[in-house]
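PROTEIN DESIGN WORKSHEET
SECTION A - STRUCTURE
LENGTH: 208
TOKENS:
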């Protein structure tokens, strides 16, 4: 899930929320054993190993973008970047990116525009990341049969942010998002966010 928004507003606390989400994500990545890498995930066509690569590749890219918001320095190709095979080393990559993001935010780099494939407000990039890594954390956890409980405040913030950036053109066959999955209004915030993002909170691997 990596789609740049048309609407460029984000929740004001995204800079604070991204750090606990990434802290939880690093712990999750560290807990996933190599024997789980071939298992399916709720993300269509992606195995646990694919999701690990996606997480590390794009997180590294976002960290580099926030460190160099004008885009003057070379960046990794997130689609070609691979997570280290060793879970501890992969988790270290997540923590390294989180530390870089913290430094960039403290330096004010998210206060102005950040150049991705197009120029976006830094606040929108952070809001997108809070949403992105809750979703892919869940993909990874569900595929590897691990717990995933990001802060409820992050899910609530993403529920406010996501509808402003996700239009119907990004939903459907072969696109980044599936149709909305109906979830009870009183369901936990993460489940409601999953449903909005085209995920079924009850997804489980098929038993053969």
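SECTION B - SEQUENCE
RESIDUE ASSIGNMENT:
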């Amino acid at each position: 899930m990596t789609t740049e928004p048309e609407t460029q507003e984000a929740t004001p606390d995204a800079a604070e929320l991204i750090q606990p989400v990434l802290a939880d994500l690093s712990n999750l990545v560290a807990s996933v054993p190599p024997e789980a890498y071939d298992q399916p995930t709720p993300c269509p066509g992606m195995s646990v190993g694919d999701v690990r690569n996606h997480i590390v590749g794009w997180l590294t890219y976002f960290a580099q973008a926030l460190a160099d918001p004008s885009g003057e320095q070379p960046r990794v190709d997130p689609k070609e970047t691979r997570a280290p095979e060793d879970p501890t080393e992969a988790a270290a990559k997540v923590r390294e990116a989180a530390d870089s993001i913290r430094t960039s935010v403290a330096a004010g780099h998210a206060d102005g525009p950040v150049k991705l494939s197009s120029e976006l407000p830094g606040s929108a990039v952070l809001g997108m990341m809070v949403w992105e890594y809750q979703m892919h954390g869940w993909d990874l956890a569900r595929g590897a049969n691990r717990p995933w409980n990001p802060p409820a405040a992050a899910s609530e913030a993403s529920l406010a942010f996501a509808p402003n950036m996700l239009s119907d053109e990004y939903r459907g066959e072969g696109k980044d998002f599936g149709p909305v999955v109906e979830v009870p209004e009183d369901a936990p915030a993460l489940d409601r966010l999953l449903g909005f993002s085209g995920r079924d909170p009850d997804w489980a691997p098929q038993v053969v």
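SECTION C - NOTES
The first strand starts at residue 113 and ends at 115.
Residues 53 and 82 are 5 Å apart (CA to CA).
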